[in-house]
Amino acid sequence: MTEKWYRLAVDIHRKYGGKISVMPKVPIRSLEDFAIYYTPGIAEVSRQISINQELAFELTSRWNIVGVITDGTRVLGLGNIGPEAAYPVMEGKALIFKYLGGVDAIPIPIRVKTPDEFIFVAKALEPALGGINLEDIESPKCFYLLDKLREELKIPVWHDDQQGTATATLAALINALKLVGKKISDVTIALIGAGASNIYTARILIKYGAKPGNLILVDSRGILHPEREDIDKMMIENPWKYKYAIETNAERRKGGIPEAIKGVDVVIAASRPGPGVIKKEWIATMNKDAIVFALANPVPEIWPWEAKEAGARIVATGRSDFPNQVNNSLIFPAVFRGALDVRATTITDEMLIAAAEEVAKYAEERGISEDYIIPKMTEWEVYVREAAAVAAMASAQKVARIPRSYKEELEIARSIIERSIKTVEILMKERIID
């Protein structure tokens, strides 16, 4: 099946010459309209913004523009393939942003050599953007870039591989734990992979109530613990990982993936494409009613049926062609919709938890089961509700320039997202999109 998707993807991208385009959203009836949209009328719009720069969010499309920025150093499971090869992924992100969030996103792969060059480019782009989505950037550089840009920019900056994956994982885990009758404060969790996704997932899980000592993280060299021989080097080169080497793993387990998995309740893998990264016999050593999230793309660390055969009760992957797709595509369009609509200055962890809880609640209301712990991307109403939850939390935390209630944002987000979906439907009906 994977090879089939590869072939289809190349054929379709060649047919359409990419996935997105720019379209006007104002009526054009005569030359007089151009006098309003461009010269001479536009001069007054520019003059007013020069007096008050905040008006750029009201008088231009900047309020709804997100830059999807990457240096192409860690693209999907392909690694450092460069900015040109990263473009299809950034464009795909932009497509999902628009269709499911009504957000006008622009792919921006950049050629830079150092983190400081990256920061310089991102800061230079700030006047053009309402928000920044960092994407497919190698670890630990991605942690530094997110921290620095969140600190220095006045628009929301988000790294989807960190925050998006962590939020989707939490949403799925909330419902998985309900089904097996366990509490997050009680379960032991092995996080296989200690890169961008799982480092932030650990952070969010702890904020949500997981005990730090109950988490066991594994990187390519084995389980994280304070006595590792590379701990001093880790402290200097990757302080984000070092923090969890010190604070987690109360049992002081040592070894690799099999030792980390033995006797735990939950496995969250975000490491490298499989299959075979996690073996069936290791899953068989987990506690009863085990939960396994194998999230590597394009191929999970273990095939879902293998995990089930080994005794796992609930299994999720990052793929849409298997049940329980835990993917950040369910998160980022709505988080930015809510953040942009209240003109948030940042995206906080509390906003992410609010999003995860709303996603989990939506699925629960529809009836959760072992094969349905999280909504599908086609259930677009969840994006509306998620955006409302994010906007309400941003307003409560006073990081919103235009505070709005859950109910107020619900109507705004529904209008924008519904319009985006209907626009595509009309274009397809009229064969403008073939």
Automatic annotation (TrEMBL):
InterPro entries: Aminoacid_DH-like_N_sf (IPR046346), Malate_Decarboxylase (IPR051674), Malic_N_dom (IPR012301), Malic_N_dom_sf (IPR037062), Malic_NAD-bd (IPR012302), Malic_NAD-bd_bact_type (IPR045213), Malic_OxRdtase (IPR001891), NAD(P)-bd_dom_sf (IPR036291). The keyword Cell wall biogenesis/degradation does not apply. It is an enzyme of class 1 (oxidoreductase). Pfam families: malic, Malic_M. Its EC number is 1.1.1.38. Residues 162-395 form the Malic enzyme NAD-binding domain. PANTHER family: NADP-DEPENDENT MALIC ENZYME. This is Malate dehydrogenase (Oxaloacetate-decarboxylating). It comes from Pyrobaculum islandicum (strain DSM 4184 / JCM 9189 / GEO3). The lineage of its organism: Archaea, Thermoproteota, Thermoprotei, Thermoproteales, Thermoproteaceae.
